[in-house]
Amino acid sequence: MSFTSATESREIGNRIVVAGIAAIVLVLGITAVLLFMSLPDANAFNMRVERLFVENDTLTGNAEIKLLEILAQSGTAFSDTLASYRFVIFVLLIFATALLVTAVAFLVMLIALNRRMGRIERQGIEVNSLLISRDQKSVYLNDFEFKLTDAALETLSVLAEARMDDEVLSGAEIEGVISGRDPSDCDEAAGATRIKRLRDTLGNQLVSELLIKNIARKGYMLAIDKNVIKMV
Asked: φ, ψ for residue 185 (rounded to 5)?
């Protein structure tokens, strides 16, 4: 049921994105049409000059003819300039459309990423396999290899064994298991320090913070399925 709901939500989101992009293109298209319609006709100046020639056929002097030729050349220049303006406006509208569509796409990607990060923060990191190799002093987390120090590897091993037994260990208990002493004789801060060093060794803050959960007033545990843990 939840799978169907998630699928429907994703389909609705995709339709909203497509509708938003289509609306952007439509609005810019209408704007372009109205803008081009409001521009004057490129041949308007030439038509006025032609009318001037027709209505003033008595202008036969050299000065008058020269003036008419200048007006005709000016009309041609105006027509070419207006045509270039139309092309520039068209290119700018295409560029604006591309930018807006890209902005919408990036916005949707950021929203989706934030939602996914929120789910990860609420549910913990999704781990399909956790292999602890004592001989190689390595940890393989979803096929990603992490080289650990002896102390960090020992701390992670203790947490893994506790997770397989569905146990939550306090800092004192972690220190007691590693040092071989009774937890009542160990300091809580010592175990917390080991957890901190383990997280620092893992390096990736997101991985370390979500992999190792700190349960208030109880202790520490691995926030993964115990069935994916293997130790060699």
From this structure: -95, 0
Distance CA 192, CA 175 (A): 9
> What pTM was estimated for this model as a whole?
0.46
| Of 33, 27, 159, the residue nearest 104 (C-alpha) | 27
Q: For residue 125, name the pLDDT band (cuts at 50, 70, 90).
A: low
- Angle among Cα 218, 192, 232 to the nearest 5 degrees reads 90
Tokens of 29: 């298209």
